[in-house]
Backbone:
């Protein structure tokens, strides 16, 4: 396998982009990325999107994006793993380059969620759960994570404040991210008093509905060196699946899928979690970030709540998590999230993150997750000059 | 010999008081309570209907009967609020019990009498030897038009009876019936609420048929009211059945166990069947029960049952009807009631 | 209104009668039905019926309900540890969601789950109610 580098990154602004269509957003993100890389042609394209079909009545996104990006006859693949579609797109682009099948591969993550009304968007998102055994009973995504939160609070004494602090921290970071959907700080009180969605999770514990795109360009390290530009290397990838239904997990208090994916990625990179300087994780709900912290080994099981309160994962803490603002503040256009985690990581590793810059950022971890913990893809990236 | 081998009821947990309904329409609650002999009624949740109540009642009946559902040869569900106008409730119930596929199934309708129709047919089917066991269910989640007198009484409940010729808990002594074409209460297809003839529902309707069937049954069986330990009449309100009892000389101790209406409301096809079930919860071996139902349109079915030794043995294999009626009630307000009963106009 | 007749009909045995599969090789119980036992890989199951009784392992209260479930909101959905040892997700009925506690004893009851519009199919299944002997 060849070593793979990321030489270009780009993303659109994220939010309710009424004037932009699905293809507009994909193309804009991709063009910014190509411009950043100083390239205008790619050998392969991977599109990460959860459901062009349910959100936009549009499938066949591979050729759609290749066509509108002006990449005639280029092979293009659309991959899906619910909210981990973006991470999967990056992994797929990696495989194209690592295998030698393509010299350069563009991974584009995109989701246009506001062309349908709220009810339909919720329905589309629920297809990541077990339709016949979970959604059938009237459960929603906040509900699934709320059940995990409830059990976590009962067993480990995790508090409402600790959950809310995740949101406060991520908003603090996101307030410095020009692309974020909600680039403003929120107070603990605001989070704790927001509308209850599914006990114990409130509105500000939940990531929003967002339109947005992000793209990264992968090529061989050999080619990257020749360009004499800053690049990052993907040194580890871990991918795992677990039961689609929450009730069937061996332990509903453990995101085993994340633990497995992280172990595989770190093993491939020849690193341990202690070597990682910061992580972009999948905070679809505040409880998810807490449980991911435990799964990747940043804290002991049950101890994530106090750690967040202590500032361990703040921008200036021991192990910064979600310097971008995370899904909560940056937004969560489903298929784009995983790619944007890579975009942020590369920006940080290049030292280009301005006010959000993590000090001495040399090794990054991105953790993308699908459903209630049914799939997860973890990447390890390292800075190279 | 044929009779009841198992019986069971199911009542939704929600209740609404007469005061709560009267308040909304500016009616005088005390006079409604006195005039109708009603205090409160049961209300089905949006996730309950005639099929769900039937299944729960039937499961209790099968539990008391102690039989394998596969041995049930016929299932009849009587209701005036079947979930579908075309698609049987009986097959849903049969499937839920595990009685399929070798089971004769039919949905019955005759206003409030549809439950006892199933009992009548089931008993005679078993008697003819065609099936070893038949299951008859009376279940309803009927609607009362907002602001109408019937809104105070239209309630929800189900009673189910496993009928057979072995392990009988209440032996059938005899049956009779009395029918005429009398338009006291009806509902046209596609109409959401029924309509009725006001005071016409009394003497020419309820009274004529209840009295006709009761008199004919007493005559045929050569029995007098004092021979019976219990009597159960159809209970559209708390007054009609008490007056019927008075007309024949039945006394309060005879009808009080089976009189559920004041706390339950009128469960239509479930009405007299549930009264019978509550009576079976009390009856001692050898005691006689007279059951006379009434369905608008109009007609009455009459039955005489005699309790056996076995009744006391099976009684507590499932929850007693009074326990379902009196315990763990959830009181709701009129707004919740209107929402649950889909009386609120919502966008499509 | 689109119809999904077969998709729900084929789940009747499971949803109406709580029919589960017991692996003939390792005894593991699978609900819903599977072709391959996830514990031992065997492909032969014997049909059993769950008792419907269990203990509430965790739950949430849905206040923002998906389409079709609005009339019941707020309602609780939980994961129940059945007496047979397996975990099943279901909606909770006949209870005040504010009074529920992890550890409560529950029992299943046949209920209406959803409908495909006012003129479409009614979908029945099971919900959990407090096990109070009614």
Residues:
């Amino acid at each position: 396998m060849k070593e793979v580098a990321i030489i270009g990154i780009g993303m659109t602004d994220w939010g309710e982009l009424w004037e932009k269509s699905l293809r507009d957003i994909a193309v804009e993100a991709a063009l910014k990325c190509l411009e950043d890389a100083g390239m205008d042609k790619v050998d392969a394209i991977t599109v990460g999107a959860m459901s062009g079909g349910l959100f936009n009545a549009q499938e066949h996104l591979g050729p759609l994006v290749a066509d509108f990006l002006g990449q005639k006859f280029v092979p293009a693949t659309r991959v899906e793993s619910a909210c981990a579609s973006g991470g999967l797109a990056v992994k797929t682009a990696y495989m194209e380059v690592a295998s030698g099948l393509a010299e350069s591969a563009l991974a584009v993550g995109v989701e246009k969620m506001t062309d349908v009304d709220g009810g339909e968007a919720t329905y589309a998102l629920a297809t990541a759960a077990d339709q016949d055994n979970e959604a059938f009973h009237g459960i929603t995504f906040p509900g699934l994570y709320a059940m995990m939160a409830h059990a976590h609070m009962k067993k480990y004494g995790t508090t409402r404040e600790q959950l809310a602090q995740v949101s406060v921290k991520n908003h603090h970071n996101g307030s410095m991210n020009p692309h974020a959907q909600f680039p403003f700080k929120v107070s603990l009180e605001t989070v704790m008093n927001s509308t209850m969605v599914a006990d114990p999770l409130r509105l500000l514990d939940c990531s929003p509905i967002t339109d947005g795109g992000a793209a990264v360009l992968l090529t061989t390290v050999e080619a990257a060196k020749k360009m004499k530009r800053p690049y990052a290397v993907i040194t580890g990838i871990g991918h795992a699946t677990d039961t689609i239904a929450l009730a069937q997990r061996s332990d509903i208090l453990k995101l085993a899928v994340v633990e497995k994916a992280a172990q595989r990625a770190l093993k491939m990179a020849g690193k341990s979690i202690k070597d990682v300087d910061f992580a972009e994780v999948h905070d679809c709900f505040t409880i998810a970030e807490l449980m991911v912290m435990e799964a990747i080994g940043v804290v002991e099981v049950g101890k994530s709540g106090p750690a967040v309160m202590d500032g361990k994962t703040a921008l200036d803490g021991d192990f910064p998590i979600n310097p971008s603002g995370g899904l909560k503040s940056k937004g969560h256009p489903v298929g784009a999230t995983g790619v944007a985690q890579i975009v942020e990581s590369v920006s940080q590793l290049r030292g280009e993150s301005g006010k959000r810059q993590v000090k001495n950022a040399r090794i990054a971890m991105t953790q993308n997750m699908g459903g209630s913990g049914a799939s997860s893809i973890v990447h390890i990236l390292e800075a190279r000059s | 010999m044929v009779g009841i081998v198992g019986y069971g009821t199911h009542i939704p947990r929600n209740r609404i008081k007469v005061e709560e309904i009267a308040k909304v329409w500016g009616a005088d609650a005390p006079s409604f309570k006195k005039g109708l002999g009603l205090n409160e009624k049961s209300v089905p949740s949006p996730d309950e209907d005639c099929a769900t109540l039937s299944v729960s009642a039937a499961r209790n009946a099968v539990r008391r009967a102690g039989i394998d559902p596969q041995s049930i040869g016929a299932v009849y569900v009587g209701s005036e609020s079947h979930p579908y106008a075309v698609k049987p409730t009986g097959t849903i119930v049969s499937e839920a019990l595990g009685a399929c596929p070798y089971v004769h199934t039919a949905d019955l309708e005759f206003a409030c009498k549809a439950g006892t129709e199933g009992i009548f047919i089931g008993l005679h089917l078993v008697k003819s030897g065609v099936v070893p066991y038949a299951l008859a269910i009376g279940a309803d989640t009927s609607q009362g038009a907002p602001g109408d007198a019937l809104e105070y009484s239209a309630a929800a409940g189900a009673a189910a009876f496993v009928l057979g010729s072995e392990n009988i808990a209440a032996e059938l002594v005899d049956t009779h019936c009395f029918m005429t074409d009398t338009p006291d209460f009806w509902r046209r297809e596609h109409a959401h609420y029924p309509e009725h003839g006001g005071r016409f529902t009394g003497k020419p309707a309820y009274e004529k048929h209840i009295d006709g069937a009761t008199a004919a049954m007493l005559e045929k069986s050569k029995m007098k009211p004092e021979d019976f330990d219990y009597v159960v009449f159809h209970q559209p309100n708390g007054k009609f059945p008490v007056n019927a009892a008075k007309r024949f000389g039945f006394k309060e101790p005879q009808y009080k166990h089976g009189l559920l209406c004041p706390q339950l409301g009128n469960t239509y096809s479930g009405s007299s069947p549930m009264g019978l079930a509550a009576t079976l919860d009390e009856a001692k071996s050898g005691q006689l029960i007279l059951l006379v139902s009434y369905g608008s349109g109009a007609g009455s079915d009459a039955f005489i049952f005699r309790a056996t030794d076995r009744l006391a043995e099976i009684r507590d294999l499932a929850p007693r009807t009074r326990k379902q009626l009196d315990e763990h009630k959830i009181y709701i307000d009129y707004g919740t009631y209107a929402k649950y009963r889909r009386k609120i106009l919502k966008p499509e | 209104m689109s119809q999904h007749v077969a998709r729900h009909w084929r789940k009747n045995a499971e949803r109406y009668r709580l029919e589960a599969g017991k692996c003939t090789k390792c005894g593991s119980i699978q609900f819903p039905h599977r072709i391959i036992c996830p514990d031992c890989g065997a492909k032969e199951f014997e049909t059993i019926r769950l008792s419907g009784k269990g203990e509430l392992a965790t739950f949430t209260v849905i206040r923002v309900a998906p389409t079709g479930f609005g009339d019941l909101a707020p309602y609780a959905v939980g994961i129940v540890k059945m007496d047979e040892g397996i975990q099943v997700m279901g909606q909770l009925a006949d209870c005040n969601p504010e009074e529920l506690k992890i550890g409560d004893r529950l029992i299943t009851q046949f209920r209406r789950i959803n409908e495909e519009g006012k003129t479409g199919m009614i979908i029945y299944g099971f919900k959990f109610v407090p096990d109070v002997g009614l």
In short: Chain B has two domains: 3-169+312-340, 171-310. The first helix of chain B runs from residue 18 to 25.
